[in-house]
């Protein structure tokens, strides 16, 4: 399938200032871009909740390297949180990464931003998360909340003996050769748009970074997918469902799970939309990034059409709807 031809034929992509997309099948890549804002596979967009993919993978790898099982209680590993701990004492790392922690959604975007940009901001956010306690038993039900990833990022920092950002760079970004992925505003970033209004560049609050703070490119995100496909043990842990049959969706560690073994998610921040799909059993990964608030349904359709010859599934509604939150909740 010719990617650029597919993009040009999709009317819903017209009018979006910039769309960059790519697919990798058994390591063979194809990339393309569309729109009046000139971009390439190397152009940097905010990727919002796709950041969770890297936070999850980094924490799973770090624990594996230290011989720590994922069913270890968080409280046993993150002793700095012990004085503030009001959550279930048996809450495990995999329950946090799998969004089945049962933790009360208590730390919104404004609260996290108010913690400042010091090295202790993420730890303070994690303290607020566990201080709020549980609203249901761990493992009882899937419920998407960025607070889970504030806690996960803080644990990654604690296990690594450094900041979350340095831990992610040392464990993953450097190891996977991700040269265009990071938290600092890159050179020549893609401008985000909300309708006809440009979104001013601003720093992403440090306390929220593990849930959605990264800039990245199509090329780097294809490399993320390829690295996951190459590390079969890591992939097996991440794609194993942590949800129950009655949950709103099947979910592993940072990824929603599709009907034919797909792994998928989307990301949303003002001015930016991102989506990604893996089909592990077919060595396939695809990603699409855009710089406009209304672009997500079109990106979901594009990625669904790309993977449909492989799986036979229409995945567009699921990719579009993933982790849709009520307005009062912070998005990533």
Automatic annotation (TrEMBL):
Alphabetic keyword roster: Hydrolase
Lineage: superkingdom: Bacteria
This protein's record includes keyword Aminoacyl-tRNA synthetase: no
Keyword Hydrolase: yes
Pfam family, one: Beta-lactamase
Gene3D superfamilies registered for this protein in UniProt: DD-peptidase/beta-lactamase superfamily
Documented EC number(s): 3.1.1.103
InterPro entries: AmpC-like, Beta-lactam-related, Beta-lactam/transpept-like
EC class of the enzyme, as a word: hydrolase
Domain (Beta-lactamase-related): residue spans on this chain: 19-295
GO molecular function, one term: hydrolase activity
PANTHER family: BETA-LACTAMASE-RELATED DOMAIN-CONTAINING PROTEIN (PTHR46825:SF9), D-ALANYL-D-ALANINE-CARBOXYPEPTIDASE/ENDOPEPTIDASE AMPH (PTHR46825)
Protein name: Serine hydrolase domain-containing protein
